[in-house]
Prior knowledge:
Blueprint: E1 10-11, E2 14-22, E3 27-33, E4 38-46, H1 52-69, E5 80-86, E6 89-95, E7 99-101, H2 102-107, H3 114-133, E8 146-149, E9 154-156, H4 190-193, H5 200-216, H6 225-234, H7 249-257, H8 269-280, H9 300-313, H10 319-328, H11 335-344
Antiparallel strand pairs: 1-2, 2-3, 3-4, 4-6, 5-6, 7-8, 8-9
Helix pairs in contact: 3-5, 3-8, 5-7, 7-8, 9-10, 10-11
Amino acid sequence: MSEIKSDVKALGRYKVNxxxxxxxxxxxxxxxxxxxxxxxxxxxxxxxxxxxxxxxHYEMRFRREVRAVARLNHGNIVQVYDFGTEGELAYxxxxxxxxxxxxxxxxxxxxxELGKIFTLMLELLDAxxxxxxxxxxxxxxxxxxxxxxxxxxxxxxxFGVARVTETEGGDQGEATKVGAMVGTPSYMSPEQIQGxxxxxxxxxxxxxxxxxxxxxxxxxxxxxxMGLAMKIVSSDPVPPTKLVQIPPVIDAVVARALAKEAxxxxxxxxxxxxxxxxxLEGKPPKEASAPPPKPATSSRAGGEAEKxxxxxxxxxxxxxxxxxxxxxxxxxxxxxxxxxxxxxxxKK
Length: 348
């Protein structure tokens, strides 16, 4: 990270006015879009540590994912406006949020009333459900990717961006490296830890971890390396009511969200949110006390997102683009066609 220059004056058409902060991937700049006369945040990725082929591969993936996220127009999702490259930097132009990260609030141990915790979770779950219905999975839900704006509302950031991080050096914190698992270990689902195929339910697990941390002030799974991984895969956390005074019914909601098997979790963010709303109304949660639900099926919106994605890559001569479709929709309606396309391009 120390190699990244902070004296950048412009990136593409965007004027750089200073540095807002430092993330796992690079610096975040305070920018201005002269064409639309608006303030923006510009997040950067340093590509100098990658060889030319790898840099091209990940820049393509980053660009395509940014295009997908740019369709997510939701009040609790940080908007993505543009993407570009400038020298050794790849950058993403985003909505500027006047506020701070939820991580800063948790690190400062600022007390949050139970009602406020529920409000923040409902906003985040609504954002997740909206994204999931559009075929987008976050993969790295954590306090550092949640902004709290000046009015106290939650804004979810960095959808899909966590796929690309620095490969060496720098202050990466817990962020994973290029080519490794995507996500932050202490907020990963068991299937992420084990390198299995993931779907929207991996975000449900991460949301459960975040809910637990908001309630208790600590993460449900602590540790590093293999020790942490084993806890996430095989150990149940201490019920929140053993740590703080909250309604006992919340334990069941947390347990459902943190179920080791994806089929036994909440199948949608909407179902998770519905149980929280019932608790707020003084009613027992339905999903948390019911038998494990059947696996969710693809929604119409998700199917449309997949079709749109496939239409954009089916005639491409770049195997990386076709591979990205298979990563996003491994069991999709066009998966077999995508595999045949890869074979035709000589990349299996």
